Amino acid sequence: MTADIVDLDLPLLEDLKNLYKNLEKDNNNDHNVIIKVEHANFKADSVILKIRSEYFCNLINGTTNIFNKKITLEISDISPTVFSLCLRYIYTGEFSLPEKDDVIFDLFVAAEKLKLIGMVDYLQNYLIEKKTSWIENNLIKVYQTSLKSISFRDLQYYCDAIIKRKPELIFTSSVFHTLERTILLNLIKREDVFLSEVEIWINLTKWAHEQEPPIDKDPRKWNTFDTLEFVKRITDFVPYIRFFTISSEDYFSCVRPYKDALPQNLVKDLEKYYLVRKGSSPPPALPRIMRSSMYFQSPTKTNTPNVGLQRRGIALAKPPKINRSVSLKPVSTLINIRQIKRISRWIYGNESGDNYTKNFLLLAKGNWDSLTKESFHSLCDNKGPTLILARIDNTNEIIGGYNPNSWTSSNSWIMSTDSFIFSFKSDGSGIDSTIFSKVINPYAAIFDGSSDMDVSFGLDLLLFGGEYKHEHYEKRLMDCDNFKIKDFEVFRVKKSNKDNTNNNFSRLQLSGSLPGSLSGSWIDGNESDDTNSNSSRLPLPFPSPKGPLLGSLPGSLSESLIDGNESGDNNNNFLLFTKGSWDSMTKVNFQQMIHQLKLNHGLLIDGYNIKSSEHAIFMNDGELNVNLYNGQPIIYDNINDSVSSENFFVDKNNFNNILQSSDVCINFPVTEITYRGDLLESFSKCMDNDENLHKKYGQYFARNTLIGGNLFIKNLNSASQTQIDVLKSFLFCAYNSAKHSIKIPVNNLFTLDLLPKIVTLDGEELDTHEKLSKWMNNLYREEEKSISIIAYNNLIPVSQLRNNTVSPVDESQPGFFKEKLNLEEWVGDAVNNNLASWIKDFHLFQGLIFNKDYGMEISKKICITFIKIPEINPSDLSYLKIIKPSTKLENFLISHNIYSPYNLSSFPFIKNNNIKSDAESYEDCTHILVHCERYEILLNKENIKLSQEFEYAIEEALNSMKPLKILQDIFNEYGHLFPQRIILGRSLKNILHTLPNSFASETINIRSESSKSSEPLMTRLDKLNISYFLTPKGRIIEKNVLSEWIQNPNNLMEIIEFDKIVPLYKILKEEQQIKVDGLLQNNYRILMTGITDLRDLDVNDIEYYKRINIEPLLEDEIYEVYGSVISKNNSKLEGIYVNFGSYDFNGFFAVIKKLEETKIDISECNVLWMIVEKPSELLVFSPSNREFHVECIKVSIVLQPNKSNYYITSSFPLTQGNAIFVHAYCPSTNYEPDIIINLVKWSHDYINFRVTKSVYNEPNNSSTYIEEDINLDLHICILCSDYKNLKIDNNGEVEYSLDLTGYVLTKDNFNENLFTEIKEVDITSGS
């Protein structure tokens, strides 16, 4: 008889509602949870929270001491208003809809976070049914949110439908730039986006411009780094833009301006197509996306290229033909009908039939990043056979697997003979390559993980871990070891007739006491050393997954003497983990293992070596337990130091140098083996004295043996504390990363060769992060590994065993030590408080940048690395700073933690003139600062070097044609300044705008005052009228808790001062600094040289004008050009005069005149020219002729009748070997004069020129003298260098002698008495 059930749920609901109302009363204390949400506190009951919300259940279970005190929980990302509605729902099942749609959506997101499933479902339906307009107006926000959780999939499908109908809601949105990269890429890939290709391109460029940091919308204003950054932002999108469907007008206005950011082969073909376009089609090699044949157009006779690149919905030439014999309703969005049919045949064989689509029911789909192990199991557990499909990110590859059993979160292996994995790879043409791989090890077919374990198909596909190994399935699926899933689908599969109980599907439960497989040559009972022999034993039936596999041993044990031969050195205790199955082990196998490892023997210990005894103590049929070691690695200090040793096993009289001494030894145990058995009769009856007993049976017997690896740390005692802390941090991170299969970010910029040496047992030095990680991974994650016996525990004296008076000794290992710690004790706080973490947290390898907005920021590029550990000094100084800046510049520096005065006008490459020159008086405010120092870091030049990337960039700039411009871009990226002294600590600030004149800038030591009395500090603050300070993040610290804040060491550190600031270029190598200094000097230099042929000139003319274009373009039109006309045989032509004019950014004109009768064909000649100006003016400065020192003299002279010699005073001493170039210009008539200028003589201070008139083309009796006064400007250039040749920029490595273009000062034309000769003559001074 069944008892009647009385339903009183209505009173219960009323009681819960009353309980919720009582929570709102101020005097109610009947609760045990306080929930902090921003500035508000909410009361609650843990029992109700845990029952109603999975989120709170996990949160409360993770809280300690929940029964001894009230629990305080903090929740972020939810407003108090929204949380109050959620709390009401938790207690009553009711909530009121907010009036504002934004708040409704926030409530929807909060409900998902708190795992309030009923509220999520209701609000999702409500938004879709009632708030269509709001969703469309906020489509980007809603769509991006819908992709973050599988609980939002209905909303995601709804948004997808809106985007299909109205893509402009996305692409023309004012917040389009906030769209995540992967989401935008997927949108552009879609075939159902109803936008023209040019609209997609325009919006893509808009999105790229507005990402952080923003890039100027005008590509003509970009520098090199802008271009590279833009390329990086659009590279993934370019293959999906169908450029050849864009009209020529749109191409030239919208696409062509970005040609420098597009692949050059694409640009070349686009230019050819749009410029030459005469019915030609683009080359087939151009990138195109062709998802199936239905999107191809047939060839047409129009000028539109037959590229098949029109988007669906934008008018195909003909509607695609569709096979009506198959259902149009898609089963999957990842694979096509043909592929589904193929999978159906793999599962059902010939039973698949034509209705195969009905055999697959979708359980889950979406973005893989939004799927957790918990959500996978909640959706897919206990559903019967399943098929998983997954698209690999950034590829056209689909992988998948079939599980003929149910997922159940059992953390066990599912045995199956019918499971398989597969791969579809598409080449874009509709032709797929398929790989089908059957299981070959049914015992390791599928691992059914849970929330803390991966789900996998053997070792081959670890889905959440993203790892692949060709192990337990027949064919290799992929060539890589790692993969990333983009999208997924899971289907429930209708059972086939093959799925019956005769297959004996079962689960292999892993034993806790015997967690692993032990095998070697003894696995089948024989001692053969043929490890490749074919035996019936099974491969290892479990992987090394991402995350701990409970109760599993990561391999199998075998001794190096695998064949059982006891000859040789029985102290060789290196072991090899190999594959095997615990289920295949027999009692004979245990005995063989005990025999191989001599687990029933005693130990002979002399302090520096441990040997197995000659005779066994116990029988070999005892109890053997093998378990994973669950403790921490063990650190031994001062290893094998006989002076400081406290190990009582050491016989110091026998101590010798065969022991390898080190400062620290670290044991990394992997497995522990325990053996218990019955004493052998021969041992029990042995009546020998202790000495003979020890020779036969050893001094001790080890109940417990640790197996793993050792690392030795050398030179630790001579290292600085900074080096020690960094080393500890690296070891701790490498261990935890390998042991727990988690990724811990390590600052690889800090190299291990700067630290104490890490050495393995076989002497290998682990001097790189890669070597250290490989060693750790080999120990903890690889299936095959070399390990050794590293320690013996629970030692029992053999004499006590015989006498049955057992008193175990703790532990022994070869060698001796002073102190023993576990890893966490040894590391302490070094993980979070060391130089390596500071490099990342405080950007110590980066420079300081003054930006355009009158601010300072830390560069994003790394400019230095360490060559030596810098000096780091602890500090406990605390002080109050009162600073009254006298200039705006000083105020700017103080605002950015720079307190020493600097003249930034002397710092190159800082282009913010407001910052550099702002020295005007400033008395608007006073800075009141509280500083608590922790560390001083000194980054002196001898400790640092340029990063490889920075050094390469500088070298490239110095060798470029525009070094100053590129250097400016580089320093804008890497930093303008570099602080060589950085103070870490904590700081507070207040700014006063009125302060009595009696208060001057000063620094007051707080700790010294507070140790006597806090009154002086408080009194001073009262006088300053300061009641609070602000932290750098804006938190208020009231004056009355200031002393407590100062004494609290737990506050997070920050940079509180930059000091010893130097220009970043001052840390360059000396030779690079010299080159940069040379560029920065405001002197005349040879900026560019060239040679231009005159083949297009008419030989019959006597005056020629030749346009000469230059590359790269100049930044100004003010410069000078010097040169000459040379013959094809490279000889200077004295009878042909050349001058230069009409200068612009792109080039200049050469004006060529014949000054005397010549038979030379001008069209066979060349103009040799060089541009002279200050590099800072034009920014172009070729590296070819930077060795030349250049002086320019500009003088005005008056040419007088019957006078030919003119004397010019040099502005600097002339020397032999100098080259002089001179050109004349007539300013009054604006024409090139028909004159000939020749160098006559020179001295150290003067130059003598002969100036005569050309009589070419004049009557025979014409005079060469000037017949009337002519005002003439002489432009004189003097080159000073030991080099005799000019390198020509536009003609490869060709060099031309200086005397081809000018006059070289020689001994022959030197006249030291020149001044005496000309003292009666007017001398013209140069300027």
UniProtKB/TrEMBL annotation:
TLDc domain location is 333-494
**What's this protein's name?**
BTB domain-containing protein
InterPro entries from the entry?
Answer: BTB/POZ_dom (IPR000210), BTB_POZ_domain_cont_9 (IPR052407), SKP1/BTB/POZ_sf (IPR011333), TLDc_dom (IPR006571)
| This protein's GO CC annotations | cytoplasm
Question: Sorted alphabetically, which SMART domains does this protein's record hold?
Answer: BTB
Q: Can you give the residue ranges of the BTB domain?
A: 31-99
Region feature (Disordered): 521-541
Task: List the Pfam families.
Answer: BTB, TLD
Task: Specify the superkingdom.
Answer: Eukaryota
